[in-house]
């Protein structure tokens, strides 16, 4: 079942769990996320960065949308870090039910302006919108980028930003970074900042850069009030680690001989994340609440 992010995360917030947003870069990763969700009866978000959409091409998402719509568990197909109205509209035309506009590197008022522009367009057609305040770090190991110095989200800014933009969800900066952390760096998330934000706002909160952080910190963030956690590097790393092992010891060249074990390795990581987020079995809640499939509304 395909739903939008507002539908997905309102129920997560009510029932105190988070939903994983897993970046998908090809059919193998789409299969990993959908099959892991179905095997564990867990809701999931299929996240797509603009560079990933460039790589997969628009036509690929005709299949992705169809596969999600025909599943027994709820999915959102989400544009991750959209950087312009053009990239957002490309996702909308591909059938995405949710988008993120990332104006976090802009001055505060400019971030408000571009985010509100996207909200005004997307809400007319039932597409949810995520905004971002503060900045996510960059480990140098991810296509999603980031900055060298994290700017933490100011709780008072979050309140004003939500009021002036009308966003459905807010990505907050509490110390995470995109990619896998170097061995000499140990991330420490500022839970006090998250708690202050949670105390001031009502909409669901999002944590970017969820890979490679200590499990106990992610679990604590979910307990405080994170409803969506973005995961990309951790499960892709597991996939390609297994792939390298196979290719280093064999002369295989058929994808159907190489990739099954890689898919299983990635699915194991996705399942572990779902356990961490307390989302396993939670697809039943959406059925119990009789959540209706999302249909893009027309002007």
From TrEMBL:
It comes from the Bacteria. PANTHER family: D-TAGATOSE-1,6-BISPHOSPHATE ALDOLASE, D-TAGATOSE-1,6-BISPHOSPHATE ALDOLASE SUBUNIT GATY-RELATED. Its cofactor is Zn(2+). InterPro entries: Aldolase_TIM, Class_II_FBP_aldolase, FBA_II. This is Ketose-bisphosphate aldolase.
């Amino acid at each position: 079942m395909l739903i939008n992010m507002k539908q997905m995360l309102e129920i997560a917030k009510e029932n105190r769990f988070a939903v994983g947003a897993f970046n998908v870069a090809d059919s193998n990763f789409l299969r990993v996320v959908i099959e892991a969700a179905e095997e564990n009866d867990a809701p999931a978000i299929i996240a797509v960065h603009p560079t990933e959409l460039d790589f997969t091409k628009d036509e690929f998402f005709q299949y992705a949308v169809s596969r999600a719509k025909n599943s027994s568990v709820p999915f959102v197909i989400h544009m991750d870090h959209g950087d312009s109205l053009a990239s957002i509209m490309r996702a909308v035309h591909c059938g995405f039910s949710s988008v993120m506009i990332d104006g976090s590197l802009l001055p505060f008022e400019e971030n408000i302006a571009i985010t509100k522009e996207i909200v005004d367009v997307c809400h007319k057609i039932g597409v949810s919108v995520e905004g971002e305040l503060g900045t996510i770090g960059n480990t140098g190991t991810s296509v999603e980028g980031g900055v060298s110095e994290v700017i933490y989200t100011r709780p008072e800014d979050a309140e004003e930003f939500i009021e002036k933009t009308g966003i459905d969800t807010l990505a907050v900066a509490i110390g995470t970074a995109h990619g896998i952390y170097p061995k000499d760096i140990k991330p420490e998330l500022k839970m006090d900042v998250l708690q202050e934000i949670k105390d001031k706002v009502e909409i669901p909160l999002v944590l970017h850069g969820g890979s490679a952080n200590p499990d106990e910190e992610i679990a604590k963030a979910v307990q405080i009030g994170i409803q969506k956690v973005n995961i990309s590097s951790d499960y892709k790393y597991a996939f390609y680690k297994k792939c390298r092992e196979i290719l280093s010891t064999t002369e295989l060249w058929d994808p159907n001989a190489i990739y099954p074990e890689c898919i299983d390795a990635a699915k194991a990581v996705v399942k572990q994340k779902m356990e961490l987020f307390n989302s396993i079995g939670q697809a039943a809640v959406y059925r119990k609440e009789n959540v209706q499939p999302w249909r893009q509304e027309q002007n």
